[in-house]
């Protein structure tokens, strides 16, 4: 499935809800992929920022694709959710990153399966399962 189609389905055609115990491993995979992207490209960037802007600063999504990806997660309200949907699509479209493990994919997967997360002070990611019950947290602060 195309990346833009995938984010467009979030909240509209939900995948099967997952048990609470499966959300924390997905978040840990998101952290691992962030670290992997930094190693692969020899860069450093905050986990919930645009990696492609650092890797390929001249690459841009077509404006209509960026707008479509941004409106998916929280229409009309800019926040980390709609930035992640844009960065997920951008990673998939960028020639320098396409085909490589997408560091935003685990976060998209959490949403696809009814879960949610919030970023606290750029250091902690709190996870909730599909029933809005806390499912754990991941510390993403650098040592």
What does this entry look like structurally?
By secondary structure, this protein is of the alpha+beta class. The chain has one domain. The chain is 45% helix and 11% strand. It contains six helices and three strands; from the N terminus they run H-H-H-H-H-H-E-E-E. The chain has a three-stranded antiparallel sheet, with helices on one face. Helix 2 runs antiparallel to helix 6. The longest helix has 19 residues. The protein is globular. The model has no long low-confidence stretch (mean pLDDT 87).
In short:
45% of the residues lie in helices and 11% in strands. Strand 1 (116-120) and strand 2 (124-128) form a beta hairpin.
Q: Top keywords for this entry?
A:
143 residues; alpha+beta; 6 helices; 3 strands
List the topology elements.
Layout: H1 3-9, H2 23-41, H3 51-55, H4 63-73, H5 80-93, H6 105-112, E1 116-120, E2 124-128, E3 134-139
Antiparallel strand pairs: 1-2, 2-3
Helix pairs in contact: 1-4, 2-6, 4-5
* Whole-number count of domains: 1
Strand order of the largest sheet: 1-2-3
Using the CA coordinates, give the radius of gyration.
14 Å
SSE pattern, N- to C-terminal = HHHHHHEEE
Number of helices: 6
Unreliable parts: none
Which structural class do you get from the secondary structure elements?
Answer: alpha+beta
Could you say which overall geometry the principal axes of the C-alpha atoms support? globular
Helical content stands at 40-55%
Q: Please state the average pLDDT score.
A: 87
Number of DSSP strands?
Answer: 3
Major sheet summary line: 3 strands, antiparallel
The termini sit apart by 37 Å
Strand content: 5-15%
């Amino acid at each position: 499935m195309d990346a833009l189609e995938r984010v467009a389905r979030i909240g509209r055609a939900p995948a099967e809800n997952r048990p609470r115990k499966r959300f924390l491993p997905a978040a840990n995979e998101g952290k691992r992929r962030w670290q992997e992207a930094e190693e692969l490209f020899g860069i450093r960037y905050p986990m919930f920022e645009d990696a492609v802007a650092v890797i390929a600063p001249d690459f841009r999504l077509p404006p209509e694709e960026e707008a479509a990806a941004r409106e998916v997660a929280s229409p009309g309200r800019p926040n980390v959710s709609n930035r992640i949907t844009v960065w997920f699509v951008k990673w998939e479209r960028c020639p320098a990153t396409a085909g490589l493990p997408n560091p935003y994919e685990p976060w998209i997967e959490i949403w696809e399966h009814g879960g949610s997360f919030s970023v606290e002070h750029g250091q902690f990611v709190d996870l909730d399962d599909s029933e809005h019950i806390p499912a754990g947290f991941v510390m993403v602060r650098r040592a």
